[in-house]
Every structure is written in C-alpha cells, then in structure tokens.
Design the sequence.
C-alpha cells in the first residue's frame, strides 16, 4: 500500500501526487518513459534508471525551476522523499523562511538538498563530496541554477565527515547538518542478501549509486557513529546534527549511543513515500532548541488499520456498467452495477458474501473466505489449454481406431474416445473440429494481467482441487449459505464500493481471520478481474 498519506504535512506531493500524463505532454524527454496501464492511467517503470532520472529531473524543473544533470552510475534521488527531509529540518531549526546555514555531508551528483534548501528557503549550504564524478556534477548543477552565492561545494578526502570540513571555518556556527549515509556494509547487503526479511517483496525501484554512495565500512550504523563522534568534539558548532537511515533496526542502537554519551536533546522521525520508508535521527547540545515530537504510536496504529483499496477510473466505470447490464443488472446506479460484478466474481470463487446496511451512495458486502480459490490460476489455466489442445487429436485417434474395430461403428468409437479424453463432451456436444483452440480457451478463461504484488490467481476449481470447464457456480458447494453462520474460515472482511468524484473506489476492511495477506491477494484478484473486463471490451 502507498504510504503517501504519511508524508510530511507540508510536502507538496502528499495530497497531490505528480500527474505523469501532464508532465509527459509538457516534457518530451519524460514522455518516452511514460506508459499507459490497463486502467488507462499514465505510469512509470521505477526499475528503469533512465525513467527514474527523467522523473527526478522533470519534477525539479516543473515544481522548483531547477535544471540538473545526473549520471546513471550515481545515486538518483527521489524528490518527494528528499522534500520530507527538508521540511523536517525546517521543523528542527524553527522557521522555514529565515536565513539558515547548513552542511550536507556527501551531497551527491544531484546536490539535491542544497538546491532545494537554497531555492525554497534561501538557506546557505556547505556541501561536501569525496567522489570526483559527484563533485563535478554537483558543482555544475549549482552553477547552472545560479545558486553559487548560496551553495558552496567542496571536495574532501575519503572518510571525511565534519571535522576536516570545518577545520578552516572556526568562527561559523551552523544551524544543522544533513546526511544521507551509505546504507550497506558490503556488496551482498547492497544486493539484498541478509539485509531484508525473506518474506518482504523485492524493492519496487532500481538501486543506483556509486560505491561511496551506497556502501561504507560497517554500513550506515558505523557511518552515523562516526558523525556522533565528530559531534562530541564540535558540540555547539552546530545547533542540530541529523542523518537519514535506511534501516529501522539502526535507530535503537544509535539512540542508545547518544544516551551513553550524554547528549541532552534527541529526536527521530519517519519519512514516507510510495512504498518506501526511511527514518531520521537528530540530536543537539543546545538547551534552547525546540525538539519536534517523534511519530506517535497512535498514528502508526491508524496507518495499520487503513483499508486496502483500488480505484476504478470514470472510463472503466462506464464499461463495467455495460458489462453489468449484460448480466441482467437493471439498476442505472454505477455503484450497484459494480457491486453486481463483484458479487458474480465472489460467487465464482465460492467466497461467501452478503449485502449489509451502509451509508447512502455506498454499497457494502460482508465477505467470508472459507478456502483459498484465487491462487495459482495460471498453472491451472495452462493445464486447461493443454487438455483443449488434445481434443482434436482425440478425434483423429478415434477415426483411426474405428478402422481396426469392426465391432463398433465409427460414430460410436468417436464418442467413446471423446468422453475418455474429456468427460464433459457428450454426443450432443458441438464438435471442436475446425475451430481454433485459442477461441475455445478464451471461452474457458484467459490469463489475468501481471499483478503488481506478484500474486497469481486461481481459476474456478472443485473442492478436490481439479479444474474442469464448468463454472464454480454450477458446482455443488458444501459451504453454508450465509457468511454469518460459518465457524471455520480463512478471514472475514467488509467490502465497500463508493464514489470518489467521477471515479469508483473499492475498499476492503479487515474484520477477523488467520492471515491478512490472503485478503490482500483477494483484493488484487478483484482489481485485476474488473480491469480485465474493461480491457476486453
């Protein structure tokens, strides 16, 4: 699920994500990386470095008037996430429009923090960099945006953090420092080995960056400890020391280190963007600083209780209404039409459901899933198609066998062999000879589109687990008719269909059960089924 609603309150992308279609129409260099998905919306493939770079450059140009260049072999920052950090520093220094002085440790080729801070708040930045390529690009980006009077990029030796960078500026007091440290200790961690929970899906975006940008001895934990060590010597030369963390597990030991060193002021926060989370830590030796409150546990609980949801755009809603009418739905209300299609899908899946009272201009269903019938659909459908391909061969074999079995007529032998190959074929069934196998397969089922969550769906199967050609609604069910009377079940949830401007939104709220992942899979199945119905029309 997207975490955008948990962005910093002042983040311009919190309630208004980038309009890829509009940006593509305005910037030709971005247009080549924008594609249209099944629902008709413009999307970007975040696993392509060129696409990520084009998006970053386009957003900086459109929303901040900044023109930058970034090499593909160096770190490509995402603008909304970096903007979260800038806004949090504003909270730390108590005032976003005052003239402040900051240090960006390892500014990178984009020099994004100094460029944003200088453009938005007229902050002065000392930006340090150890990599030659990053230094050259950062210097060029500052000059071409005419910000040399506010941003000073300096080349520093390897393993230099704060001490060496400030040794020539003994009188200046800085308001803050920022740092996006290398997250990984070695190449294995950078590749995701032993650094991610095995149950977590792979990252949704590409990992770019040079060696000095993504890896350091001891990883981010030891890197930030070195900053803490420098701060213990510099103390009040900076009002706030801060850094961003890529792993939540790094937060607790670093806070413990600050406690052991007697640092009086410590706080932390979360940065959210898309499906990405980062954490930030800040500390100060000043008694008069305002310490922003860390994220509350209540906000985390509220986020955990948010429903699963997906949107059906206006164009799709119109198409689905036509589909519902073909199924006999007489209501002209779009939400009732969509609910009818959802109910049909649930019936096919043998998911028990019942309409429940709800608010006006809304439709609600109580769902009870007794068995998982929506997984591994592709494998079953391929088996169905394989069996269908065997049908014409069965006709040919039957004709050949009839010449060597005089005790049976040709027609009788064909019928016998057809029944053996496919029990559903009877003497009254239409012959498949002369028809394309693909046409028959389309009548049985078609493979669903690729799912974002990499969850495969399951076709209609009988309780024994074998898939026939009949609809699940035609199969006898041993389950109770009412979802309220079931004692054993996988999960129960509440499905709401509601309006959002001219679009329709389907929300699925968890009620109880064994595993929320199963509800997530069902939500993905319903979304893909509805979008497939639109794409066929």
Sequence:
């Amino acid at each position: 699920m997207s975490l955008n609603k948990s962005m910093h309150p002042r983040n311009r992308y919190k309630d208004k994500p980038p309009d890829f279609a509009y940006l593509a129409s305005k910037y030709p260099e971005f247009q080549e990386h924008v594609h249209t998905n099944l629902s008709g919306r413009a999307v970007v493939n975040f696993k392509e470095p060129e696409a990520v770079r084009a998006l970053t450059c386009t957003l900086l140009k459109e929303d901040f008037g900044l023109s930058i260049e970034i090499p593909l072999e160096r770190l490509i920052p995402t603008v909304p996430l970096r903007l979260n950090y800038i806004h949090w520093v504003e909270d730390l220094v108590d005032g976003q429009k005052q003239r402040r002085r900051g240090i960006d440790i390892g500014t990178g080729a984009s020099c994004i923090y100094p460029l944003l801070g200088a453009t938005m708040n007229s902050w002065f930045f000392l930006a340090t960099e150890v990599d030659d390529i990053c230094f050259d690009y950062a210097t060029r980006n500052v000059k071409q945006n005419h910000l040399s009077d506010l941003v000073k990029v300096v080349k520093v030796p390897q393993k230099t953090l704060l001490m060496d960078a400030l040794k020539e500026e003994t009188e200046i007091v800085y308001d803050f420092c920022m740092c996006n440290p290398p997250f990984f200790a070695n190449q294995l961690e950078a590749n995701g080995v032993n650094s991610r929970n095995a149950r977590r899906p792979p990252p949704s975006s590409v990992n770019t960056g040079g060696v000095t940008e993504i890896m350091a001895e001891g990883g981010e934990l030891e890197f930030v400890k070195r900053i803490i060590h420098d701060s213990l010597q510099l103390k009040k030369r900076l009002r706030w020391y801060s850094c961003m963390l890529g792993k939540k597990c790094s937060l607790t030991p670093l806070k413990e280190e600050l406690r052991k060193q007697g640092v009086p002021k410590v706080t932390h926060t979360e940065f959210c963007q898309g499906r990405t989370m980062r954490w930030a830590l800040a500390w100060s030796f000043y008694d008069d600083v305002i310490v922003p409150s860390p994220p509350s546990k209540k906000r985390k609980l509220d986020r955990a209780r948010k429903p699963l949801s997906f949107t059906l755009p206006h164009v799709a809603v119109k198409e689905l209404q036509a589909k519902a009418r073909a199924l006999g739905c007489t209501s002209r209300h779009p939400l009732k039409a969509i609910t009818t299609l959802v109910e049909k899908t649930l019936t096919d899946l043998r998911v028990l459901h019942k309409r429940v009272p709800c608010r006006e201009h809304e439709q609600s269903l109580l769902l009870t899933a007794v068995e998982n019938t929506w997984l591994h659909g592709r494998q079953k459908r391929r088996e169905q198609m394989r069996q269908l391909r065997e049908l014409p061969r069965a006709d040919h074999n039957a004709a050949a066998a009839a010449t060597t079995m005089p005790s049976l007529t040709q027609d009788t032998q064909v019928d016998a062999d057809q029944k053996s190959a496919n029990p559903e074929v009877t003497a009254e069934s239409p012959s498949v000879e002369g028809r394309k196998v693909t046409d028959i397969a389309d009548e049985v089922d078609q493979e669903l589109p690729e799912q974002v969550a990499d969850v495969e769906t399951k076709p209609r199967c009988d309780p024994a687990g074998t898939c026939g050609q009949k609809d699940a609604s035609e199969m006898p069910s041993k389950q109770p008719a009412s979802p309220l009377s079931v004692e054993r079940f996988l999960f129960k949830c509440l499905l709401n269909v509601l309006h959002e401007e001219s679009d329709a939104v389907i929300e699925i709220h968890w009620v109880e059960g064994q595993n929320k992942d199963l509800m997530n899979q069902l939500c993905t199945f319903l979304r893909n089924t509805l979008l497939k119905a639109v794409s066929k029309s």
Remarks:
- Residues 184-196, 209-215, 401-480 have pLDDT under 50 and may be disordered.
